[in-house]
């Protein structure tokens, strides 16, 4: 077999910086250039090598083979600095136990019970809007998903505590904190103001999560997701410690809210820009719901809304890059790689591969008449795949459909001329500059 040094190099490398500059300036454009080339491409990243797995079947094998491809490398270390060692970032040696303990909190029945909170928060948002108002949509969707997640985690939290947690996590996910997180290790260790802000944001998030865990301990019958995590169901595993629970709360709030918020923002951008989609959406909501907000039982009765959500996940993948590290020497795509090699899978790149999705740049919800957004397959991995598939995927779909039913059921959202909406990939890929104008229906 050939050595890693013979792996084809991805296009666009420049002297000294390699692919780092292109990934920083226009990551999505760079990823599109990699489609249709060799199955594995070498990336030159800040003085080290990584490998983009651009072939759908190979990428799927990387995501599903958790024994050979684990969370590791620089990206995982940087994520742990923010999220701790929760379900999203923990190594495979800890993942099975954590997943089993968390399963009881994400059963179909318990997720269904969260529909009341989802509906209340979506309706709260719709009541705050006024006819003809211009809404900065990404912050609005972020606050909506944050409030739903916090109230679902801890049902007894008062509104002041909810607002405090939102403020703390907005600081953690601030762009300056993100920029510090992706700096090389030598730069992150410099005594820069951004380093102090990063440390302060992480400490504040840890403290507010500790408060949430203490509140749940004091109210064991509270009934929220956090209480279910403490109970652990019938998993037979040693229960979570308070430190582990803090890491799970950070993970839910930092990784689980912006993703759903981003998809909702892109969803309404598409609805606003394309009258035919807007008409079909309104017709379905009116026919099935008659002006009320959806419940969990209504979600399967809204196939076009779900298809819109699935196509939004494909076209505007919020998770646009996933990192894995080889646990041993292995073969992939006809090349051998040593243990510790860093691999990258891009859902965005895979979802725009014409071999999987013909005319990939065309936004077409009708691709999903016979498919489900919750089922991954080679070339479609919005929630990951295999044992590490997102445990909150069903929660996210239900939350999004209920939010759409409330917002689109009451408001006709139209674009603001000159907004100049464009993708901005950071931790998630959200639309930058999305402002929509409200018109009462």
Describe this protein with a few key phrases.
441 residues; alpha+beta; five-stranded mixed β-sheet; 19 helices
Give me the secondary-structure topology.
Blueprint: H1 20-25, H2 27-34, E1 40-45, E2 48-53, H3 56-64, E3 69-70, H4 73-83, H5 92-103, H6 108-113, H7 115-128, E4 134-136, H8 137-153, H9 159-172, H10 175-181, H11 185-188, H12 193-218, H13 225-231, H14 242-255, H15 257-273, H16 275-289, H17 303-315, E5 322-326, E6 330-332, E7 335-337, E8 342-345, H18 347-351, H19 393-410, E9 411-415, E10 422-425, E11 429-432, E12 435-440
Parallel strand pairs: 2-8
Antiparallel strand pairs: 1-2, 3-5, 4-12, 5-8, 6-7, 9-12, 10-11
Helix pairs in contact: 7-8, 7-19, 8-9, 8-15, 9-12, 10-12, 12-14, 15-16, 15-17, 15-19
